[in-house]
Predict the structure.
Amino acid sequence: MSKKTFLQAQRLQIQEEEEEEEEEEEEEEEEEEEEEEEEEGLKRIAVILRKSCCVFRSTVTRAHLQQAAVTDVPGRILNELHLRK
């Protein structure tokens, strides 16, 4: 193999390695972006669930208090609410 052919082969190999490294870096960046998007989505879901839970608790509490006022058994219902917390 001549020196010129050897140098060309060596350059080609270096170019291929650089392209592989660039592809790996791009893949890693894409994976990181996907993970970040997934984390953001999970955070949004957690916020929604917390808000929903608070709304649900306040709704249940109001319903129980309304029931207590109507049935005239406030002590028993308030005790149930206290035990649930």
